[in-house]
Design goal:
- By secondary structure, this protein is mainly α.
- Helix content is about 50%, strand content about 5%.
- The protein has three domains: about 55 residues, no CATH class; about 60 residues, lambda repressor-like DNA-binding domains (434 Repressor (Amino-terminal Domain), Orthogonal Bundle); about 220 residues, no CATH class.
- The radius of gyration is 25 Å and the shape is elongated.
Length: about 400
Amino acid sequence: MKRDSAGHFFKLIRTEEDHKKALARIDEIFNAEEGTPESDELDVLVELVKSYESKTVHIGFPDPISAIKFRMEQAGLTQRDLIPYIGSRAKVSEVLSGKRDITMSIARALHEHLGIPADVLLKQPGAEFAPTLKGSDLSRFPWKEMIKREWVSARRNILDYLDEMFHELVEPVGNPDVATAALFRENGHRRINAKTNPYALTAWCWRVLGVANQNAPKVDFNPDTVDEAFMRRVARFSLAKDGPLQARDFLAQHGIALVVEKHLPRTYLDGAALRLGDGPPVIGLTLRYDRIDNFWFTLMHELAHVRLHLAINEDNAFIDDLNLEPNELEKQADQEARDALIPPDLWEDSPARNNPSPMAVYSLSQEAEVHMAIAAGRVRYDRNNYRLLSQFVGRGEVGCQFEKGRDD
């Protein structure tokens, strides 16, 4: 049993019915304000649901054979029960062992009579697929906010046009498999708040990928390009007044797309390192905290993912709320970002570590060839004192550059 701060007890989720009731209650109180009993209840329910799903919900994307076997188990079917849809007993055995291809006629029969999604059945064994979203799933996306931002066209009755709006949102990404592959999978590469709305998070990622795809870099990306010297070169753009825009252009010249897109409500998001299939890496930033120091650290953190992890990892998304405790891969990216902005030897020898006076911080920034806000941010982080040097971190000086760039 678990108890919230108001003393209410919650039983563990043991059945699918318990699971459905918990999800329904989470939907009801998802907008609860911090510090209220409903907010406490939400925290507990999220923990209980995650615990239940970690033990019972299949989190990978099945190949056709796995999908058929799962449906058989779910419905209590035997191989003999599949004979009307596949053919002889021998054909059923060959299909389930992977020795016989699933033909169009077999796929149609299994889809019609067993309810297995057609796109799953027509995938090659072992391949991943984009999950089929039903109307009830589509209704959970934040369409009103996306219409307000003109991500999709306005409709009078949203519920009557969910399929159309979904297509409009995803179409700019290009390949629909790219739009969904890594974003619906629960994995170790999400540094996200437990209260995050996964539909809003996915929509934001699609938006970033779509903008990147429609404004793709004109040169191919070479993974060997992004080394320590490359990252230091990017960091030095911070010295220029329009450094963020110069950095975006520089990255594009090396095959990396940078997209700044405000986070959607209930995503608690700073940035992400994504990938357009086998195409260019995409760095998405939200400017949730519009400060110079935060922009450059988040950019370098996501660039570190591009350098260290994105090309060699089977998943194509690293999603980050930098307020949360990092896992091992995130620790690597954090350290890489800090070292790229201020080299370790300069930091170790800097008087600013022990005497964070404005002059010492300025001297550190000059030695590191970065904006003073970056040096101030490093001192604030190291001392865990975010009231310190607040006048030097450059509040509100980044977002306006990208807004002006869009207007131009």
